[in-house]
Amino acid sequence: MAGGTTARRGTPFSDRSGPAARKGTGAPKPPKEPKGSKPPEPPKSARRPGPRGPGVRLRRGPVLALAAAAVVLLAAGGTWVLYGSSWLRVEKVAATGMDVLTAEQILGAAAVPVGAPLVSIDTDEIEGRVRGRLPRIDSVDVVRAWPHGIGLKVTERKPVLLIKKDANFVEVDASGVRFDTVPKAPAGVPVLELNAGRSPSARRFDEERLLHEAVLVAGALPESIAKQTVQVKVGSYDSVVLELTGGRSVAWGSGEQSDAKGRTLNALLKAAPKAAHFDVSVPTAPAASGS
Asked: Listing from the earlier edge strand, what are the strands of the sheet with 137-145?
């Protein structure tokens, strides 16, 4: 009886562990995908390189090589055009701006190598040659006139004073530079006369200093007065006298305030055209006398 009870109770337990129980407790199947759905896209890291990927960068190598070769060829061609061809070579050299000197003198001093490549011309060297060989030249501007020319624009020194030397005259510009000796005095340029031997200031102010004062005075004269000035007499540092045409004279004083003195004298000559003596040593208190 007890054994039968045990058998009946054991049956349900043995049934749960049978095939049906094992079938129900297995791994679940994945759900079915609905019809028409697309599979999920793979992550970006798994995608194949597209048209903008590394494959294109690898193809840039030949393009860059071709570009570099083109640059080299252009550079070589440009160098040949500038230096090797006959297209850009010096064929003409011209000079302008002269008053006393001639174009032949300027071109001879410049010595520009005709036939040389225009780009190879050293303009600074040409300027140095012209100024070194022709002291009358104050400045010169050397320019390339493409495709075949070189132009020289010169500025000559202007004499403001002459120093008598034997039978000749030494020209002095407004900077005190003695730049040329000529046999004939240029018109409208006064001659220096130094009479400072007896001056008490002769030991203190030598001839060069007195010449400097005379140059200051002559360089400050208005053009209309400079043309009328025959002599600049220097007796001492503060005793400069101008001798004008018509026997007129001007007491100038020292070379200080020369610009103001020049303007004052210009006005005084207009105000007293018949006067024979003028004093502008104190430009704020000028005087005129005689007739």
From this structure: 92-96, 149-156, 137-145
